[in-house]
Amino acid sequence: MSKSIGRMFSPGSTSNYGYENNYLNYLKNYNTYDYDQTANNMAAKAYDMSNNLNAMPEYQFGVENGDAVRQRAENATYQAYVDKLTPIYQQQNVDLSNQLINQGIPVGSEAYIRSMQNLQNNQNTALNQAAYQSVLNGQDAYSQSLADNLRVAQFNNNARQSYIDQIRTLLGNSVSGYDNMMNLYNTQNGIQARKSADMQQGLNNFNTILNNGISAIGKVL
After folding, report:
1. How far apart are alpha carbons 10 and 198 in whole angstroms?
2. What gap in Å lies between CA 178 and CA 191, rounded to an integer?
3. pLDDT tens string 55-74
4. Where are the alpha helices (DSSP H) in the chain?
5. Is 0.85 surpassed by the pTM of this model?
6. Where are the domains of the chain?
7. Least packed by Cβ within 10 Å: which of 5, 128, 146, 171?
8. Alpha carbons 218 and 221: distance in angstroms, whole number
9. 54 touches 163 (CB < 8 A)
């Protein structure tokens, strides 16, 4: 090969992609032992932590609506009223019956039945109020139960996400072999592309010189 032809091809092999070769050598010889050991320890810790995920509560996308709590509150409230009022009502019935008899109103008479019915109506009104209050207490219990369940679900979800974030942080400090191989692959591809381009440019230059030389010879002849 002539010196002129050699000059057409040689610059590309040194100045154009010499940096990539230097970078490849740098990557191949860079000492990552301390970092790798630290990253390996952290990755191992992340692995151990990941095994504990099975022991953690799963993500909750919904909570119990508290119907059972509401029903228990309603029943308990109403039963408390009934337990309190029943002996009072029984004593009121006895007292009114004795009062009517002492007044000369016989049992079974219209006046007796009407008086006893009025007392029972008043008693039923109080029981209706007890039922209404039990519904209110049930609604309060429902709302409180729902709020409590939401707080528990939110706490569990936040705790799980925080745990996963810790694992990701530990893994984020690690350098995978895949990443390093991709660096090598991309750099080598870059060199190959530059070599191909330089070779093509060299051929183009050579063809130009050759054609110019042939043209010059033709003019002389």
Report:
1. 9
2. 20
3. 777 777 777 778 888 899 99
4. 3-11, 18-29, 33-51, 67-102, 110-172, 177-220
5. no
6. 1-32+175-221, 63-173
7. 128
8. 5
9. no
